[in-house]
Amino acid sequence: MDRPTFSLHDISAFPIVRLDLEGRTGSYAEIWAREMDILLSDGRPFTLLVVGNRGEETQEDKKTKAAWFKVNRERLVAICRGFVCVEPDAGKRVALAAQGLQISKAFGLPFEVTETAAEAEALARALARA
């Protein structure tokens, strides 16, 4: 996989793909979608590890990502092994886990939320091996 083509996703620990959203606000969904397309086209299974608070997404970003998920659901399910998010705040972690339950139901993929990056890394590696 060509590493320079990625600006949002860090593939240096593949099959763990890290998406760091810290400080991102809007206008990133098209780049995200392009990079997700590359990951799926590669065909090798991966686990997505999401860190950082993305803040409020723009309506355009939400629409772009929702359209991408609708079109690419089957490809995503076939290749992605799951999603792991890091959320240190207990209250936000509970809310994110509730959202994750809905995502997990919609895609049939594990969606886990951990308190620390170390926990997330271990869980992401376990999912990648599954």
Brief summary of the model shown:
This protein has 130 residues and is α/β, with parallel strands linked by helices.
Task: Chart the SSEs and their pairings.
Elements: E1 9-13, E2 16-20, H1 29-42, E3 46-51, H2 59-79, E4 80-86, H3 90-107, E5 111-114, H4 117-129
Parallel strand pairs: 2-3, 3-4, 4-5
Antiparallel strand pairs: 1-2
Protein name: GntR family transcriptional regulator
Characterize the structure shown:
With 130 residues, the chain is α/β, with parallel strands linked by helices. It is 51% helix and 21% strand. The protein has one domain: Transcription Regulator spoIIAA (2-Layer Sandwich), CATH 3.30.750. It has helices at 29-42, 59-79, 90-107, 117-129, and strands at 9-13, 16-20, 46-51, 80-86, 111-114. The longest helix has 21 residues, at 59-79.
The share of residues in extended strands comes to 15-25%
Count of the domains = 1
The number of helical elements comes to 4
Shape: globular
Report the order of strands and helices: EEHEHEHEH
CATH topology: Transcription Regulator spoIIAA
List low-confidence stretches.
none
Helix fraction by DSSP (H/I, runs of at least 4): 40-55%
Organism: Dongia sedimenti
Protein name: GntR family transcriptional regulator
List keywords for this structure.
single chain; 130 residues; Transcription Regulator spoIIAA; 4 helices; globular
